[in-house]
Amino acid sequence: MSELHLSRNTIHFAEPLPLQNGAILANYDLVIETYGKLNAAKSNAVLVCHALNASHHVAGPNPDDASDIGWWDNMIGPGKPVDTDHFFVIGVNNLGSCFGSTGPMSINPVSGKPYGADFPVITVEDWVNTQARLADKLGIRCFAAVMGGSLGGMQAMAWSIQFPKRLAHCIVIASTPTLSAQNIAFNEVARNAILSDPDFHGGNYYEHGVVPKSGLKLARMVGHITYLSDDDMAEKFGRELQRPDGESHDYRFSFGVEFEVESYLRHQGDKFSKYFDANTYLLITRALDYFDPSRRYGGSLNRTLAEVQAKFLVVSFSTDWRFPPNRSREIVQSLLSNKSEVSYAEIDAPHGHDAFLLDDPRYHNLIRAYFEQMLEQGVRS
């Protein structure tokens, strides 16, 4: 087992990018990190697609801040389930994000000011198209696997539909073929928290030298509730009151923190508001809402997945009520109807939607076994 070999680059694309909404982005940058080494045949590449608030920094310490560990560090690295001693892993920061790739904070070449609210609407399909262009730049004709959890899983599924010959394996974790009305409703509440913040200024808050922190904080609090299960929250926080020792625990009206769960949510919201961009949040949650690959096939997921060629691994978690197991089973059933090769696992885990990011031995052993099988079937490091 070797040390993690990490490399970060900003890739510029001068060729105009037609977007799903009809707009054209004249040029753009994507920030990527790679881990491991690409083999001579360029057949061992794994693309990792990130979820809402993540980035290209998938594994290991951030080169700019050693305390910032990659968001999927427990999954990817030497000797880990996705073993970078054998696989060349690519993490890409999606277009529209706020971690270096072109997005609302970037300078609009037309106005000379940050794009702000003028940044075009982005879809999952747009992201996949930019990722395919990235693969072209790297000389990768076919990925050994495209994988992701949550919104990342949507991108992996879109890859299998848009570029069926360019991935051998599609790994969809804690994801869904479309958002439910309830999910769209949660996203709308979070967006309205941002839009109603006086510091939002119609999305052009950069010019005013402010950040809509209150809106971002509330948006994150709403979202975070949906990532945890009821059992997990009960175990972590229960109904414990948070008051100084010796202070009365009689009932009282207060705008301050009373319960531990309140303290936790406020902490998460405060932290989020300091590093994430409000316009990016609006863009990415809309991309989540719009994702519906079956729309062009009359709503038939069977027809949508009829031409896929990749082998699939689909994973869900029993207490994930944001993207529940029955939505993963829809994907599996449609693949089986098309006689596609698919493996499915439903992990009985108490952590809700966030389970795909956590250390669960059954989950990690499953991913490890799947990637080891890929090696046995012909991927060479």
From TrEMBL:
The active site is at S150 (nucleophile), D320, H353. Homodimer. Its EC number is 2.3.1.46. Substrate binds at R220, D354. This is Homoserine O-succinyltransferase. It is an enzyme of class 2 (transferase). InterPro entries: AB_hydrolase_1 (IPR000073), AB_hydrolase_fold (IPR029058), HAT_MetX-like (IPR008220). It catalyses: L-homoserine + succinyl-CoA = O-succinyl-L-homoserine + CoA. It comes from the Bacteria. Keywords: Acyltransferase, Amino-acid biosynthesis, Cytoplasm, Methionine biosynthesis, Transferase. Its main location: cytoplasm. One of its GO terms (cellular component) is cytoplasm. Transfers a succinyl group from succinyl-CoA to L-homoserine, forming succinyl-L-homoserine. The record marks R322 as: Important for acyl-CoA specificity. Pathway: Amino-acid biosynthesis; L-methionine biosynthesis via de novo pathway; O-succinyl-L-homoserine from L-homoserine: step 1/1. It is found in: Cytoplasm. One of its GO terms (biological process) is methionine biosynthetic process. Residues 44-358 form the AB hydrolase-1 domain. Belongs to the AB hydrolase superfamily. MetX family. It comes from Polynucleobacter antarcticus. One of its GO terms (molecular function) is homoserine O-acetyltransferase activity.
